[in-house]
Amino acid sequence: MMMLYAQLTVFYLLASYASGSAKSAGPACTYTVTPNGTCPGSVGVICHTLDFYIQNASVYFLSNSTFCFLPGVHPMSSGRFNVENLSTVTFVGLGTFNQMSVEHKVITFNFTVSFNEDRNVTFLEPTAVIRCDNSSGFLFNNITSLSLINLTIANCGANVSETLSYIQKTSPIISISLVHNVAVLMINVTNLVIETTSIQNSTGYGLMGINILGQSQITGSSFVGNNQFVKSNLQLYDQTFTYCNDGSYYIAPRFYVNDAVHELYAGGNAVFIYDELSNYSTEPVLNLSSCLFALGVDGSILLGIEQKQIYFNPKFKSMGTGLGILMLHNFDTVHINVANTVLYRNQAFYGGNLNFQVNQMSSDIIVSNVTSFRAISLIGGGLYYFINPTPYPTLGNDPDSLTLTNSTFSSDYNYDYFGIDIDMSNQVRMNTVVLIEQCVLYGNVVLQSSSLSISMDNPVTVINSVFITTGCYGGIGTYQTKNVYKNCSFDRTNIYSSESYIDFIDSSISNSLLSAFELYYSHLRLAGNVSLINNTAASNGGALDLHNSDVTFQAPLYSKFINNSAVSSGGAIYTFTKGGNGECVFQYNDTNGTLENPGVHLYFEGNYAKVAGNVLYGGDVDRCSFDCTLVPQYSAKCPSMITVFNKTATFINSGNPSAVISSAPQSVCSCTNYSVDCSSSTGAGQIVYPGQTINIPIITVGQLNGISPDAILSYTCEVGSTLNSLFNCTTPVVSGNQQQTQQYCTNYVYEVIEKDYIHTFAIVLVPKTAYFNFFGGTLKYAALVTVLPCPFGFIWNSTSYSCTCAPLLQKFDVLCDINKQVVTTSGTLWVGNTSSGDLAAHDHCPYDYCNTSFITFRFSDQDEQCAHNRSGILCGGCKPNLSAIFGSAQCKPCTYHYIWLLIPILLMGTVLMALIFLLNCTVSVGTINGLILFVNIVRPGVINLLPTNNQNGFEKFLVVFVDWMNLDLGIETCFYDGMDTYAKTWLELLFPVYLLAMVAAIIIGSRWSSKLAWISKRNAVPVLATLILLSYTTLFQTTVTIFSFTRLDTDNSADDNPPVWLADGNIVYAQGRHAYLFIAGLVVMAVFIIPYTSLLLVAPLLQAKSHLKLCQWVNRLKPFIDAYQAPFKDRYRYWPGIHLVLRVMLYLPFTTNLTNDISINLLAIILVLSFYFGMINILSVYKNWFLNLLETFFLVNMIFLSAAILYNLVTTQSFNWNIVTASILSALLVSVVVVLCHLYILFKHNQRFNTIALEFETRIMGKVNRPNTVVAYSDLNRESDNNINAVEEKLEVSMADFYGSTDSREPLMEDN
């Protein structure tokens, strides 16, 4: 690809002319023009200023005059100066040249593009400068042999509107009346020479030539920044980035116009107008070479602030601001040669850089070695060539011709259409010829159409040219054209042609972002080596976009379609034929090839279409009529078009085979993620419920079953004996939004709106395009659907004709989804079916039995709403092969080997009882009363209601400590396989009863055994009292659990559903096996809970009345009652009963936890214990201050624990086990201190302990075995029991010293 660099080109060309001028002899000056009145000293030379000569024009401006301008600035302020009716007039500068940069010489518009090219355009500026006052200028009229050499003409622009008023004829494109100012106006000038001259920064046009005749030439000259007045009224606003599809961008300036200053008129760098040439005998020739046309601005194009983009003023029809050639009237041929020239950043409505317009005149235009870039135009920024279709009387035989050779057109910004626009459409004569040879067209920004547009009915020949787009859009467009392209490469082609062929030979099109070719009503022939590479279509046809056009593959042909893409259809080729005549869009002209060895080779690689047809869309290749007359060897047995196409085409990386070739959608097929099946028109039957949405996997296909997405129309039919006997069909709804298929298998979603009885119907699907175009012949696709009555938990809604939630479920705001036959619940709600098959619901699932988050499940798998592997009604049971465990609501695997755990558990009860005996840690002492209250409340009130899934080992140990203090196992275990909640409840009753039975047996046994009586005579009753208090919590909770029941809400209208046990909803309450448990609970309640609680609460009152015969039985219980009342002051001996009432107040909500709200339970603890805390500190109920302090500590601990957890839950909605750990650990540490105190008291008098131990061994073991003591049993036997009692009395006195005196001692059990 040719890359021409403007800076090097312009500078080299101008420098070569300057060098040539320096070597030649100086001109023969008739007059010398001085810039400041100072003249050379040569005698006889006439020397004046320019204004002097102008003021005396009749004297000095004569034929055969040469004006030599000395270096410097020659001011001109005398308005328009007319030079008329002369011959051989020469203006020549005698100075040198300054190298100037376009960017710094004139106002910069900051319009840049992101190409890595050197665009620092420079030129040579003569030092002999004619500088005007923006209202002065030159008019050369009727001059023969006019020369302007080595001059700079700047800031000129005289008003010439009156002079141009005689040109009244107006083309469709230009209105001469809009031209008001021109720096240099030439009319009827013959043999014009402009050499190494620079015309700059003019108001209006820099140079306008009307009827420049003879052999005229402009060489080595620059025209820069003309129509400066317009630019001086444009103020820079900011810049906007225009991003392209490929990620590149262009920086377009934003300006606003100070319209109040002056009206804007037409203008630019240079324009030549030819009009009424019939009176001239010779055809005019204008040669322009080695020139620069840069930064011309026309009044037709503004950069507006409101639109924030380029704005084109519709009242201006520009003549071009770079170089414009207008041939208006007359029939002779005008010859224009533009060579070795650079056109840069000229801005106009049409043809910013080059503008050629032919009205009623023949033209011969040659453009060679031209570099055009960064023009800004609405249409044809780089080049605009227009032939007016208006007919005229005499056509003549001379053709119009345009030749572009060795030229570059790049980086032009075209707001609307075409970087190069060649418009010769609808001409009367048919002999216009366009030749484009060895040209480069690349990087042009075209917002809506092609980079090159050709509209004509005449041949166009393009040879060895390169057209590559690196801009936003671009390409080649031809309209109604007969064209020949040879050895060329384009970036896009738009073609409109009626009858003529377009020959595209040895050419390539690449990197277009708006299709490579776009043909309308055209015939395209491809021949030679053709490449269409990396082209992108904003709609259809990345390489070829054919509209009612056809393509002939002319052998020999090797055509490559590589990496073309389309946003819509036809990644490589898109065809559209309205109506269609049955003939193939593609034909082959291959006189020598065969099917096995064709002369046509089509290579497709990496083409892609977002919608359909990665390689080809349309063309009816599966059924069109192939013209075998163009392929004689096929005539004997003419193959199908698709056969020939497949034999000549190679597909590489073209995607799924079903996506290679397609067309407009024709039918619907079934599919999977991996395959398309069009062999059957019937889909697999589906069984559904009313209101259910079904998914029908389908795909729409075009020709050759190629994937072709489309909207789907559907209608339903009743089904007869076979699928073909459909009747009572509905009418498809063709308006509104239909479901759309994709390039992959998609589901057609259909909602079944039917009645709920068993019946079958068919859903018929058809592509919307096929339905409108050829519905009768399209393949219809039918899916059979069988409707069933609504499933369990759903009811048919006669309004919506669908299955919705049953009324019972609606009552509890359950979400129902008939599509999946699932329901969604949340919180503590449980729904399911009962053993009788009724639908049931309950809004308070037992705590930790159900998942409280949103749960979606089927009724066939309703256990999904259960937590911890639970199952059944209210999640009361365990799943198969799982067992209920102690310590939590979980269900886990279990075996019968776990039954052996009963042995260590029973031994642990014995150990606990022994420790209490030994350490005397009983309720009668009072040191453990606060601890027992703490563990009794914390376990059910806090720990039971908190999650256990994030506990570490130490936290679990602390919880086990609390459980043990409540006579609970404290570990998650079971005893045998299949253990359920029922058996677990029985075992929870037995362990406390076991301990109580042991103590009771010791007390009773002591009546018959002196040894046992000796052991238990001092603290058997206090130990019993302590164990009873410890067991109270477990027995009370278990009893409440036994008595807890609920009724399920059901959809059974009889409403006779029996209550169920709350702990296990699978068990009917107080019936069957639960009846035995219910009776056991009654026994515990009647024998233990109620009497025990009542006795301790009213004991002081009963004791006060014990002298009455009715209350004398209380005296027999005095040792037992005194064990509880011993630590308290006399007036508060009812306080143990208050303890029990306090527990009952908190146990009931904790045990049932009906609200399932931890916050309410915690708040209850805080309020109740705070009141109790105030009472115990105000009243000081204990005899010893230390016991008051100890119980206060445990109360404060519980209040703090509850408050901290409540605050944590309210603020963070989460739970932190560290709070519980700190609370229990502090309670444990205090308990350890209390035990150590008991040990200290026990061992502080060693001798006394030894005496007691010795007596213990004597009485119990029957012997003494102490090495250092020789005491016979007979000696000890001589000691009376009173001696031992005396020792114990002394030990008791020592303990009293610590705990305080007691009014009621711990009496022994009496024999009677």
Structural description of this entry:
By secondary structure, the protein is of the alpha/beta class. The chain is 26% helix and 31% strand. It is built from 24 helices and 85 strands.
Low-pLDDT runs: 1-25, 104-118, 168-174, 231-263, 302-316, 391-396, 469-499, 1260-1312
Q: Shape, please? A: elongated
Number of helices: 24
Radius of gyration: 55 Å
> Given the helix and strand composition, which structural class is it?
alpha/beta
Report the sheet with the most strands, covering strand number, pairing sense and barrel closure: 47 strands, mixed
Proportion of residues in β-strands? 25-35%
Distance between the termini: 129 Å
**What's the overall average pLDDT, rounded?**
75
DSSP E strands, number: 85
Report a brief summary of the structure.
By secondary structure, the protein is an alpha/beta fold.
Describe the secondary structure blueprint for this structure.
Layout: H1 6-23, E1 31-33, E2 47-48, H2 50-55, H3 57-60, E3 65-69, E4 72-76, E5 80-93, E6 97-101, H4 102-105, E7 112-113, E8 122-126, E9 128-132, E10 137-149, E11 152-154, E12 158-159, E13 181-190, E14 193-195, E15 198-200, E16 205-213, E17 215-219, E18 222-224, H5 228-232, E19 234-243, E20 249-257, E21 268-274, E22 285-289, E23 292-294, E24 301-304, E25 309-312, E26 323-327, E27 333-339, E28 342-344, E29 347-350, E30 354-358, E31 362-368, E32 371-373, E33 376-379, E34 383-387, E35 401-405, E36 408-410, E37 413-417, E38 420-424, E39 433-437, E40 440-442, E41 445-446, E42 452-456, E43 460-468, E44 476-479, E45 483-490, E46 493-496, E47 501-505, E48 508-510, E49 517-520, E50 523-533, E51 536-537, E52 544-547, E53 550-562, E54 565-566, E55 573-576, E56 586-589, E57 600-605, E58 608-609, E59 616-617, H6 641-648, E60 649-652, E61 661-662, E62 667-671, E63 676-677, E64 682-688, E65 693-701, E66 712-719, E67 726-727, E68 746-751, E69 759-767, H7 768-774, E70 781-787, E71 794-797, E72 802-805, H8 807-811, ...
Parallel strand pairs: 1-2, 1-3, 3-5, 4-9, 5-10, 9-11, 10-13, 10-14, 11-15, 13-16, 14-17, 15-18, 16-21, 17-22, 18-23, 21-26, 22-27, 23-28, 26-30, 27-31, 28-32, 29-33, 30-34, 31-35, 32-36, 33-37, 34-38, 35-39, 36-40, 37-41, 38-42, 39-43, 40-43, 42-44, 42-46, 43-45, 44-46, 45-47, 45-48, 46-49, ...
Antiparallel strand pairs: 6-8, 7-20, 12-13, 19-20, 24-25, 62-63, 62-65, 65-68, 66-67, 66-69, 69-70, 71-72, 73-74, 74-77, 75-76, 76-83, 78-79, 80-81, 82-84, 84-85
Helix pairs in contact: 9-12, 10-11, 10-18, 10-20, 11-21, 12-14, 14-15, 14-17, 14-18, 15-18, 18-19, 19-20, 20-21, 22-24
